[in-house]
Amino acid sequence: MAESNNQDLVTLTVDGMTTSVPQGTLVIEAARQVGVMIPHFCYHPKLTPDANCRMCLVEIEKLPRLQTSCSTKVAEGMVVKSNVPHVDEARKSVLEFILANHPLDCPVCDQGGRCDLQDFSHQYTPTTSRFTELKRVFPKEYFSPLIETQMNRCVQCMRCVRYCDQVMDVKALAPSGRGTLTEIKHFSAHELDCEFCGGCVQICPVGAITSRLSMYDFRPWMLKRTDTICTYCGDGCHITIQKKQDELIEVNSTQGVGRNNGDLCARGFFGYHASVHPDRIMHPLIKQQDGRFAQATWEEALELVAEKFQGIKTAFGGNAFGGLVTSRCTNEELYLFQKFMRGVLGSNRVDSSARFGHVNGTLPLLSVQGTHRWTATFEDIVDADALLLIGTNITETNPITGLKVKQAVKQGHAILVTMESLLPARGTISNITLLATHHLPVRPDHYHIAIVGLIKSVLDNGLVDPGLETRAPEFFRAIKAAIDSTSWAHIEEVSGVSREVFSQSAHAFSSSTRGMIIVGQGVLRSPRGAEMVTNLLDFLILTGRHGQPGCGLCPLAEENNDQGAIEMGATAEFLPGPIAIGHHDTRQALSKLWEVDLPQEPASSLMEMFRDAQAGQVKAMYIVGENPVESLPQTGKIKEALESLEFLVCQELFLTETAQLADVVLPACSYVEKDGTFTNTEGMVQPVRQAIDPIGESRPDWEIFSALSVVMDQPMEYGEARDIFKEIRSVIPGYGLVGPVATRPTPKVDVVQQYLQEGFAHGLATRYVCTQDQPASDTPFLLASTQSLFHSGKFSTRSKGLLQIQSSGAIMLNPSDAKKLGIASGDSVCVSNAHGAVTTIARVLNRIPPDVACFPEHFDQDIRCLFELHIDKESHVPYSKLTWVRLERVEKGDV
Amino acid sequence: MLAEKYQDHIADLLARYPVKRSALLPLLNLAQKEEGYVSESAMKEIAEILDLTPPQVYETATFYTMFNMNPIGKFHVQICKSLMCGLVGSDPLIQWVQQRLGVGPGQTTSDRLFTLSVVECLGSCGTGPMMQVNDDYYERLSEERVGRIFDELKETGNSSLKSGPFMVPEPISR
Amino acid sequence: MPTHEKILLKNMDQPGYTGSLKDYEAVGGYQALRRVMKELAPADLIDIVKQSGLRGRGGAGFPTGVKWSFIPKDYTGPKYLCCNADESEPGTFKDRQLMERDPHQVLEGIAIACQAIGAETAYIYIRGEFRLGAKILEHAIDEARQARYLGENVLSSGVPIQVYVHAGAGAYICGEETALLESLEGKRGMPRVKPPFPATHGLYQKPTVVNNVETLANLPHIVTRGADWFASIGSPPKSTGTRIFCLSGHVKQPGNYEVPMGITFRELIYEHAGGMRGEKPLKAFIPGGASASFLTEAHLDVKLDFESVAQAGSMLGSGGVTVMEEGTSMVWAALRLMEFFYHESCGKCTPCREGSSWLVQVLQRIVDRRGRMEDLQVLADLCQNIVGRTVCAFGDAEIAPIVGTLQYWRNEYEDLIRESTAISTTSKELPVLALNS
Ligand SMILES: Cc1cc2nc3c(=O)[nH]c(=O)nc-3n(C[C@H](O)[C@H](O)[C@H](O)COP(=O)(O)O)c2cc1C
Ligand code: SF4
Ligand code: FES
Description:
The structure holds three protein chains of three kinds.
Chain A lengths: L8 E6 L2 E6 L4 H7 L23 E4 L6 E2 L10 E3 L3 H16 L15 H9 L22 E3 L9 H9 L6 E3 L6 E3 L13 H5 L5 E3 L12 E6 L8 E7 L2 E6 L13 H5 L14 E3 L5 E3 L2 H19 L4 E5 L5 H15 L4 E3 L5 H12 L8 H6 L2 E5 L3 H4 L1 H12 L4 E6 L17 E4 L5 H14 L7 H4 L1 H12 L3 H8 L3 H12 L4 E5 L1 H4 L4 H14 L9 E4 L6 H6 L6 E2 L3 E2 L3 H11 L11 H9 L5 E5 L3 H4 L6 H6 L3 E6 L11 E4 L8 E4 L5 E4 L12 H11 L9 H11 L17 H9 L6 H4 L13 E6 L13 H6 L5 E3 L1 H7 L6 E6 L2 E9 L7 E5 L13 E2 L6 E2 L2 E10 L4
Parallel strand pairs in A: 1-5, 15-16, 15-24, 17-18, 17-20, 18-19, 20-21, 24-25, 25-26, 29-33, 30-32
Antiparallel strand pairs in A: 1-2, 3-4, 3-5, 6-9, 7-8, 10-11, 11-12, 13-14, 13-26, 22-23, 27-28, 29-36, 30-33, 31-32, 31-36, 34-35
Chain B lengths: L1 H4 L1 H9 L8 H12 L4 H11 L3 H8 L13 E6 L2 H5 L2 H12 L12 E6 L11 E3 L2 E3 L4 H14 L18
Parallel strand pairs in B: 1-2
Antiparallel strand pairs in B: 1-3, 3-4
Helix pairs in contact in B: 3-4, 4-5
Chain C lengths: L9 H4 L7 H6 L4 H8 L3 H11 L11 H6 L10 E6 L8 H8 L1 H15 L3 E6 L4 H16 L15 E6 L9 H8 L23 E5 H5 L1 H7 L1 H5 L2 E2 L3 E2 L1 E8 L5 E6 L4 H8 L9 E5 L8 E2 L9 H6 L8 E6 L4 H15 L5 H18 L6 H13 L7 H5 L1 H19 L12 H6 L1
Parallel strand pairs in C: 1-2, 1-4, 2-3, 7-11
Antiparallel strand pairs in C: 5-6, 7-8, 9-10, 9-11
Helix pairs in contact in C: 3-7, 3-11, 6-7, 6-8, 15-16, 15-19, 16-17, 17-19
The complex binds flavin mononucleotide (FMN), iron/sulfur cluster (SF4) and FE2/S2 (inorganic) cluster.
């Protein structure tokens, strides 16, 4: 937000109190600042004023009529009166009008007790009404499985409609009809089909739009609230969990709080039941001779694990252990896990799900600029004048970061350049490419060459930062030479984007002063991810944006604590910090603090662990909350690797495919049952709080690590999560100075200097080389495993709310391809390649590019067999998101 | 499909406005002319043409009373009942028309020829009672004239009694 | 009958005048535009119109030249003119005649206004029901384009002026200028909150002028015959020129009469419109469209100019004069108009939306002999609670019929209510309770 300086202040008087506020402030906000709360329905700070409810009328001296304070801007010397009889009487009359057609069904209304209308009525009106006419009655219509409308209660403030349009850019709500008979609908009699962000439910000041998930289950005053952080993506939204006794009733968010500032997505708003799914593991389980699990006590289970671990450690040494932890864990848990692996078991084989892609962002950032974090914040996105989005269907992966982008474009008029495979077609889910000023449609396997095209445009069009060539001649020449080896003809042919469009986009970006690059899973989770990110950093340097205020390259974290996993040292190459694993001083300091000798063996990451397990070098694994058997393709032979272990411990919420292979399964708590912190994609450390008691006998992961260490006689004892956090802060000084705004680290000058002098040369021989994967003629479709807005990994597929929106996967393809193949939405389609064949249902969607098919990863159990596994030589990231297939119709679907 | 049938007309409409959505009312008009009402498939198609969501088309369509959201008869008889026509006898005329057609306001005759609507002021207050049938105005109505109009419409699909370029009082012939 | 020189209806009064381009040119048409394109700087043109004293004929009577001068001078982007041809005010039917009978007069006015404000595009927002008018205008635009009065390069001046007809689709509120703009943008026709005003943030948020058809039709004449000539007609200095009054209701010869402002209602009704249609004397009349409060025979000598009618407690408005004879029920008349307003309220503002539905129901009850004496206070209070508290002037307009009739014919309300005594005055019998129980 722009800071205002003194010249922009306007002084006015509200009810006798004088105050100074920035020019452009609305009277209603100025009044709030001096503690005068003006009643209102239609006003909402996020929306442009519509001044339709007329509740906020005030007297302004020198103006003839009462004015709506929600739409009137302050002026110098303005005298506002809200406490005069005249104004009071106007408010009463507006309420009388609203109540005329409002049903008095407060006793059965879920909004009762937190309803603006109820509150204002209490304050302003007599209990009897002069209205003795017919109230309008709308026939009840089915609206959607998750959202209920009760249009008789609607006060027509249009907040829902305006929110859906202005903030979400979804435009799914339609006020239909005119005058008093206007009602909020979707499209004709069709049930609502939208992003299900829950925004309309939250923003409705009365009970006209409510959630069906908890309908009639509660009265607001029965609810106990817990403020915590959502677990479904790296955006790290602040959510308030409302429970009645130990039953989860609903989730909401508060405007002005958290990085999401009151906005949520479907996952956050409707996904909260995953934690209380009946399939949760209730007790520790020990595998019997016959291969079945038997319920055990914590003592039995922990003792067994301790005994086995001790035995293996004595026989084979620490290096025989592998540890894998999910980035869904809290920082405290991630920290403790790596401490346990390194300190107690003595193994350097530690990794987390950040390996699946997030490291591809972190590693280049660290080596080019010395900080692995975003050098910008969400606020900077909003204030940016140019945004370059690459390989991110941001709305579906990181919806709230997406909202910041929308705000920047729609309200701040930022230039938006999108390089993305999805086409700019309108659908029921908003599509960020539709807001783009420049869009580069690029197939999911062509981001690399398209990025090269962009950089080439910068060089060829003289858009390079003027001082750069003198400042860093070697860098400049080397990059230029590397780029020159790829011709425009080749770039245009492969990427399908014309040179013209590249240069327009490059021009647009380089003419900005606050330019940011946001990189998504399309880059981070695909082959050459780290190279692409490095090249994009080169782009930022070349355009002179690197290191400038409000500028930076920002990789999007897919999982809620990918960032934390790296910072807590829960990846192979890093100690907490993140500090390189071999860093001498840090090792010493940690040894001292932990009172152990750190293992000397080289670190090994996820795929190396599996490889070594199969080779018999890794004897035991400790897998926490990850399900590699499921999430990696069969060609990776993960199951075989795990089966060859001597001992496998899984710590889980559910008995996953991986957990089923375990010798001991330890039941862990989900995020709603524990305390701790998560670090979001922009590097903001935020408190996670326990909302309900642990399900069954489950325990927070950190508690289990701690208990196990005690049983193993190398105690890491902590009373509560906060104690671990204290230790983290002693290891990483100042970690998580929790504030409302994320810090903006700046690139380290010496590191950048080093990069410009010689660091750039590392990998330069390959990173600009454009290769091209040709489809075999019999498998012409590029199948991409993609993310959906309605799910997060497979955890959310246990949420009854989200399953009502999306309960299965479908192969999505473009209308023209569908036509060619004679496929319609709903048909059964056979998807096949050399690895196998799978039959699934087709969905034809305008936004899917030609020759591409997409399938949501959350439901990919069957289709995963078609994918191959590639491992990045540099970053060791396993890629399995793209493959080539053919499609054939098997059977017509029922329409 | 409007887009194919009226390709040039639609292109001409779109060329008139710097912002596509402005062509929404003209396109809804076109759709109604084509099918007699604004169908869901037409709204979806218009949404696509104008790069809107179907709800955006729907919210606009339902605001304007001239758009029929359901199929109607071949002739849409809209009789004005506002004060000025009321003063010169629109009420009894409406009664008469209801009897004559055998349907009430909002209803369509069983032969699907006539749909009756009773509407607010159509801007013909000096020449009431009046009605509009499809695109044409009929003014200074009497039971007898309305009867003739209905008969002619039934027979030929047209009526000689429709109003020409409007001028009241008529030019004084000198 | 005193004869006055007609200005706007003059051409069409000529026998055989068809309104074609040929006919229009034959009576000197488009000479004013020639002059404007060749000799007059926009600033001078605006001055002339200011001096003529021309005030808007759409209802509010805002001085046209002054409105134009609000368009930012140094603005270089696109600007727009919108011709308000929505003509939906009950009792008004003059614009229809101007468009159907002499379309080029309107087009010439549009072209002149475009030149004055520097607009290259004008939209004629015509109410959807006027299919014939739209067709005639479209044809006239084609003619004018071919003759280069409109188009890419008007009269070889290098200036483009494009005019398009844009049909509405049934919504009175789209006559309100900002609702008109919303509608033109393809949205629901809901008035915008002002400020900002259309002059700076109008169509597509660009500087825009909205002028009524009749207002624009005056322009060629002002240009040709001069500001002083125009300013000498009517009731200077504040109400200059002629106006077309639309006579409807119980007069002998309803229709459009163009007279200089400042004549009396008596003259208009009894001399021009031929007096009452039958034996019954005049009881009431509406002086300026449905939004203007009713007046009585006692007001017959009020002058037809903006100030005099306002002084009499009503407004000159759109020029629709509806006459009612003795025997007409004023409560019924108020109900009829209230039904209209209820039907047409866009629904944006609470007081207008809920008030219109409440008022219409109370009036209906009274007319149905189910009224109560307290209803009169409710009616008066509700009107008081609507006026001045809405986004657009519709709110002020919708209460006019009730305020006026309550003021002059309260006894009629009371009589109807007295006839209701058979019915219990407790609310028990009212349908709302039946619904709830
Ligand atoms: C509810 C309402 C309806 C209106 N309807 C019309 C109309 O049908 N035609 C018109 O010219 N002006 C109408 N107006 C007035 C316009 O808002 C606007 O003042 C006018 O078009 C300006 O043109 P003028 O300055 O030439 O009069 C209406 C105003 C209101 C508040
Ligand atoms: S006053 Fe009535 S018509 Fe005008 S904006 Fe408000 S609700 Fe709409
Ligand atoms: S809050 Fe100002 S009008 Fe509704």
